[in-house]
Amino acid sequence: MSIETIKWIKGSARIIDQTLLPNKFEYIYCRDVETMWRAIKRLSVRGAPAIGVAAAFGVLLGIQKFKGQDKPKFLKLFHKTCDYLATSRPTAVNLFNMLNAMREVVNQNPQANVATLKKLLFKEAMAIFKADQEVCRRMGDHGAKLIKNGMRCMTVCNAGALATVDYGTALGVFYSARKKARKFSVYSLETRPLLQGARLTCWELCRQKIDTTLICDNMAASLMAKKKVDIIFTGADRIASNGDTANKIGTYMLAVLAKHHGIPFYIVAPRSTFDLAIKSGKQIPIEERKSEEVTHFAGVATAPKGVKVYNPAFDVTPANLITGIVTEYGVIRPPYMKNIYETLSNR
Ligand code: MRU
Predict the structure, then answer these.
(1) Regarding beta strands 12-16 and 184-189, do their DSSP bridges make them parallel or antiparallel, or are they unpaired?
(2) Which is nearest to 151 in space by CA: 193, 180, 115, 116?
(3) pLDDT at residue 345 above 90?
(4) Which of 22, 144, 161, 209 could form a disulfide with 176 if both were Cys (CB 3.0 to 4.6 A apart)?
């Protein structure tokens, strides 16, 4: 894949500014943690796995300016940086899981001095980056087995290279299927209000020459009723122990429609998107974003000034609507509580 969503380059984190796609391709060079925080908040870098990597790189940015060997001062700065990054977005658990992985480095090395801790944290962030590249390809290969020749697939939001380091979760399944020479096509929902499907998924899939058709979100039901959809793949922002899954707003709607029309509905997500500390989707915090995202399009008002707005960025799909969850360890199927635990608890 030629898309490098996020990369560490000589003391800075380079990210593709996704707010500008598909019209402009520009990088942002984050040289301090505040720039990274803003990039996550305003969705310049987005998608659960990419946010996790961005958080790990954000920690490096926060501590790199620290000079000297005063360990208590260093630890204060380190924890303050982690706490700060944790306030950028609430739903994607990858953010918190990767910050915890960074904190674990510090906890596991109580004797290490500042210089050693800096080196170990750098190593951990690079390991997080590399692991994302590897697990996406493994998920893609497991998921590709579900795509048969001639299938018409559907997806929502962007769970592609742009949502990870460089390959994708749900879209990674398409990339792996294509490598195996499968013939298939994809319907991409535009994904109101910020159009991650239209702007990002269609950009990615068209670049890879995958047969792609863009539809508005409210066209999905009519396509299914006409028997034009064979299988659905989406990403995830947080999966609870019982399989309930938070993903981009509109995913729940697709899952309900899929159940009604007898269409298999798969989530594609790595271990780092599971939150085994929570029992069900009821405990997942759902981000609500500013009303302008709904009342305006490209800076132009599309609704009367002052209208009340409801703008949750995610919804929760109950586990009973999910056919299977494709992970790097294979496809987890119901009963989820038992099978998620058996597959993931020691990993
Ligand atoms: O608000 P976003 O664009 O960060 O939402 C992203 C999604 O909902 C993705 O589907 C999810 O993070 C999975 S990405 C592999």
Answers:
(1) unpaired
(2) 180
(3) no
(4) 144
Whether 1 shows a pLDDT value over 80: the answer reads: no
Q: Which of 3, 45, 96, 157 to mutate to test the pocket of ligand 1 (most atoms within 8 A of CB)?
A: 157
237 lines ligand 1 (CB under 6 A): yes
- 139-344, CATH topology level: Rossmann fold (3.40.50)
Is residue 46 lining ligand 1, measured as CB closer than 6 Å? yes
Q: What is the mean pLDDT of the chain?
A: 97
Domain boundaries, the chain: 6-137, 139-344
pLDDT per residue over 92-131, tens digit each? 999 999 999 999 999 999 999 999 999 999 999 999 999 9
Closest CA to 326 of 219, 236, 208, 203: 236
Q: What is the biggest distance separating any 2 CA atoms in the chain, rounded to whole angstroms?
A: 67
For 277, phi then psi, to 5°, come to: -80, -10
Q: What topology is assigned to 6-137 in CATH? A: Four Helix Bundle (Hemerythrin (Met), subunit A) (1.20.120)
Q: What is the whole-number distance in angstroms between the Cα of residue 99 and the centre of ligand 1? A: 18
Q: How many residues make up the chain in this entry? A: 347
Which residue's CA is the closest to the ligand 1 atom numbered 15?
A: 159
| 19-78: pLDDT as tens digits | 999 999 999 999 999 999 999 999 999 999 999 999 999 999 999 999 999 999 999 999
**Contact predicate 30/36, CB 8 Å:** yes
Using CB atoms within 10 Å of the CB of residue 264, give its burial: 0 to 12 exposed, 13 to 18 middle, 19+ buried: middle
- pTM for the predicted model, two decimal places: 0.97
Q: DSSP of 184-221, one letter per residue?
A: EEEEEE--TTTTIIIIIIHHHHHHTT--EEEE-GGGHH
Could you tell me if the CB of 162 is within 6 A of ligand 1? no
